Automatic annotation (TrEMBL):
Domain Glycosyltransferase 2-like as annotated: residue spans: 5-105
Gene3D superfamilies assigned to the protein according to its UniProt record, in alphabetical order: Spore Coat Polysaccharide Biosynthesis Protein SpsA, Chain A, Tetratricopeptide repeat domain
Source species of the chain: Paenibacillus mucilaginosus 3016
Name under which the protein is recorded: Glycosyltransferase 2-like domain-containing protein
InterPro entries recorded: Glyco_trans_2-like, Nucleotide-diphossugar_trans, TPR-like_helical_dom_sf
Length: 366
């Protein structure tokens, strides 16, 4: 059986650190924490879980801190987490089972990273990360912000999920953006990945025009990872929507088709564009396309689950209702309800459309 060190970097994580460690402590053999300057109760809380705490000065470089945490691990494999991550009981159990059977020839195990959830607790956005890596391979983290683990070799793709469950923490919202802007001010070079994530930070802060400028630059350079390019097109479209430039909104969504097969997220954006413009025929086409697409074969695709499940059907319901095609509207609302059977919007649609259908279908005579 293999052994696992969980490695983390923290700073002022008193609100979440115990929750995170409680969720994984039964599945790991060692806990390694690198603290970059906590001033709250974080260190006191961590002391109840491990004595392997390392103090590391913060130098505006997440990769440096993560590499330091890896340096102190002693087990066969390293599991990395953030303090606001959680492993559900069933996933922790799956990790314990994996320990029993994992072949030492495996260099990395990928896991889904569940980023956001709907009201019913279903994951609505996820991506896949190299999450458990063989210590002997000495894989390194790269990037001062939105760092990534450079991994190669024998990769095992697992279904064990990590859930991102952040809480509001004052003072954190502008941290990453400030690091990028200090990097720019000091004329440090930006990689394509830096450019993409800098644009994301600008977008997250509502700086739509500047974000659009950076997305355009990132795409024009032609050096980005394919998945980042697809995501950049969608986010660029969202910026143009906020800037009230509908034609650029649609053009940006269409631009994503240069990088691979159409994605449901982009088709839904195009459906919205035409729906807002009163072009119901075109809206039906794009929402209908989204509803019929097969999911990407790539395990690294970043998906919005709503666009691949209920959302296009709900929007087709809206379109067909406006067209007076109530039977079709009812059918698509029914398909949307199959994904979210207790959704109040869809239940209201169902009642409304049943009334519409009764009014247009003559009652049978006895």
């Amino acid at each position: 059986m293999i052994t696992i060190s969980v490695c983390m970097i923290v700073r002022n994580e008193q609100a979440t650190i115990a929750r995170c460690l409680d969720s994984v402590r039964s599945a790991v053999d060692e806990i390694v924490i690198v603290d970059t300057g906590s001033t709250d109760a974080t260190l006191e809380i961590i002391g109840a879980y491990t004595d392997k705490m390392i103090h590391f000065p913060w130098i505006d470089d997440f990769a440096a801190a993560r590499n330091e945490s890896f340096r102190h691990a002693s087990c066969d494999y390293i599991l990395w987490l953030d303090a606001d991550d959680v492993m559900a009981p069933e996933d922790a159990e799956a990790l314990r089972e994996l320990k029993q059977r994992l072949d030492l020839s495996v260099d990395s195990v990928t896991m889904p990273y569940l980023l956001s959830f709907d009201e019913q607790g279903n994951a609505v956005q996820s991506l896949r990360r190299n999450r458990l890596v063989k210590r002997a391979r000495q894989f390194r983290w790269i990037g001062c912000v939105h760092e990534y683990l450079e991994v190669s070799g024998n990769i095992l793709h697992s279904g064990i999920a990590v859930r991102h469950q952040p809480v509001e923490r004052p003072g954190r919202s502008g941290r990453n953006l400030s690091i990028y802007e200090r990097k720019l001010a000091s004329d440090q070079p930006f990689t394509p990945r830096d450019r993409y994530y800098y644009a994301n930070e600008l977008k997250d802060h509502g700086r739509w025009e500047k974000a659009a400028e950076q997305y355009e630059l990132f795409l024009s350079e032609g050096l980005g990872w394919e998945e980042d390019c697809i995501q950049a097109c969608g986010k660029l479209a969202d910026c143009y929507h906020e800037l009230r430039q509908p034609d650029r909104f649609a053009d940006s969504a269409l631009r994503s088709f240069r990088y691979g097969a159409p994605r449901a997220e982009m088709c839904c954006r195009l459906g919205y564009h035409f729906l807002e413009g009163g072009r119901l025929d075109a809206a039906v086409f794009w929402y209908g396309t989204a509803a019929q697409l097969e999911r990407p074969a790539s395990r690294w695709a970043i998906l919005n689950e709503a666009c691949w499940t209920w959302l296009p059907h709900l929007q087709l319901c809206v379109c067909y209702d406006r067209l007076g095609e109530y039977a079709r509207a009812y059918e698509h609302n029914k398909q949307a309800l199959a994904y979210l059977p207790e959704d109040p919007r869809m239940l209201a649609n169902q009642a409304y459309l049943e009334g519409r259908l009764k009014s247009v279908i003559p009652a049978k005579k006895d």
